[in-house]
Write a structure and sequence with these properties.
444 residues; alpha+beta; five-stranded antiparallel beta sheet; four-stranded antiparallel beta sheet; 14 helices
Length: 444
């Protein structure tokens, strides 16, 4: 009888569906795709997206021990079984939320990152707007039914694509049939589809009475990748059958050769139409472990992050002043050990014939070893343009700093270097007041 009542209740949930070619985002099928419905635990995709973002930004680490609040421990099932006052590493909370869809773990993640579930929900909504999820409103981190907590098949498909391409290093979580969540091993709520459909490797299930049986699924076959979303399934079995049908439709309709066009990262700067408020990370970054500045530099730990490279005389030594900071610091420490040079002024040890002095680009006087980051961009030109725009907007604190673009695997980082800690903090506060993303870079 209970099963029958559950099925009847779920059958009342409105149906919606969306199918896209994940490679370029082309819509292959949609039905009621823009109807606002209850997303249920599909919500946790956003919770996890922000968790991945926070780890990348340095706000928190995977090994951070999160203290579980009474609020998190009291969440109804599905849950990991966390106890109030318990401490557990963030990585296990992420696993529990992604694989078991644990509500207590999701709430604990939100509270650990933003201090409260309400503050985390506001960040979820800012991120949703920045991702283009125009019909979504989040009220909590787990997806249990709450007035106004709504989304659409289109928006959740968009979010699933961002999870896949923005954080591929974490995507394998969603294909694990089971995983250790620290206090116990948990099984994947999506394991039936993962086992039954060839190429399926994620992403997230969801169920409440108001929502019905929801699923955002992704599968890859050969060069093709399809994402299919279903809202309002009548049961796990019928939902999975419908998703399999939609995935088949996607593989049939999609072209064999499609140029990969990954979605852009969220733009928190906004415009006249607004992408939402800037996410504040400067305060959290201050809490990460970094050496403390002292009046004099007597140990290698107190070396500045950005100075000119000094080592055995070499024709490439001047050009090395522009490489990434940790390589420069390593060379400087080696020079300090062998020559006893001070951190404020570093010269090669004189050898015949005389060698020219190495000129530092950034003065280290006054502890100007800090910097700020004002975003990551898809091209060097975009990063340099943002640096120039920011420098003109905040001349009071950034005058005399060095504009530096650092390329990494995720794009081009726009940094201002050669600041004191106080100036870096002040610059970030002033930029954030103008809705510009900013976080500090310490001498590490």
């Amino acid at each position: 009888m209970c099963v029958a009542l559950t099925t009847l209740a779920a059958s009342a949930a409105p149906y919606a569906a969306m199918v896209i070619d994940a490679r370029d985002g082309k819509v292959l099928h949609s039905r009621n795709a823009d109807t606002r419905l209850h997303p249920a635990s599909l919500t946790k995709m956003m919770t996890l997206y922000i968790a991945f973002e926070a780890v990348e930004n340095g706000e928190i680490s995977l090994d951070t021990k999160v203290k579980i609040s009474r609020n998190a421990a009291a969440e109804p099932p599905s849950k990991l079984g966390l106890q109030s006052g318990q401490r557990i590493a963030l990585r296990y909370l992420i696993r529990a939320a992604a694989v078991k869809s644990a509500n207590d773990a999701a709430t604990a993640i939100g509270e650990a990152i933003e201090g409260s579930e309400a503050a985390f929900a506001r960040r979820m909504n800012r991120t949703a707007k920045a991702l283009g999820m125009s019909n979504t409103t989040f009220k909590n981190a787990h997806g249990l039914t709450e007035t106004g907590h709504m989304s659409t098949a289109r928006d959740m498909t968009t979010l699933g694509r961002h999870v896949l391409y923005d954080y591929p290093e974490y995507y394998n979580l969603f294909s694990r049939r089971s995983t250790s969540a620290g206090i116990k091993t948990v099984n994947n709520t999506n394991r039936r589809l993962l086992n039954a459909y060839r190429g399926a490797d994620g992403i997230k299930t969801g169920y409440t009475r108001a929502a019905g049986f929801n699923l955002v699924a992704s599968a890859e076959r050969g060069s093709k990748r399809i994402i299919a979303t279903v809202f309002g399934g009548r049961s796990t079995a019928t939902r999975n059958a419908k998703v399999a049908e939609l995935l088949d439709l996607g593989f049939t309709r999609s072209a064999s050769r499609v140029a990969l066009r990954k979605p852009g990262r969220p733009d928190y700067i906004g415009s006249s139409k607004g992408a939402g408020k800037t996410i504040r990370v400067a305060t959290a970054v201050k809490k990460s472990l970094r050496p403390k500045l002292r009046p004099t530099a007597a140990t290698p730990e107190e070396a500045p992050a950005v100075v000119a490279k000094a080592a055995t005389p070499d024709p490439t030594i001047v050009a090395a002043a522009n490489v990434i900071e940790h390589d420069i610091q390593s060379a400087l420490l080696q020079a300090q050990e062998t020559t006893g040079a001070t951190l404020a002024s570093v010269e090669p040890e004189p050898t015949p014939p005389p060698q020219p002095k190495v000129v530092t680009r950034i003065s280290t006087a006054g502890g100007r070893h800090w910097g700020i980051n004002v975003g990551r961009y898809g091209s060097r030109y975009a990063a340099e343009k943002m640096l120039l725009k920011t420098a003109l907007a905040e001349m009071a604190t950034l005058d005399g700093s060095l504009r530096k673009v650092v390329k990494n695997t995720r794009g081009f980082e726009a940094n201002f270097m050669g600041l004191s800690k106080e100036t870096a903090d002040l610059a970030c506060r002033r930029l954030q007041a103008r809705q510009i993303t900013c976080y500090t870079l310490g001498p590490s």
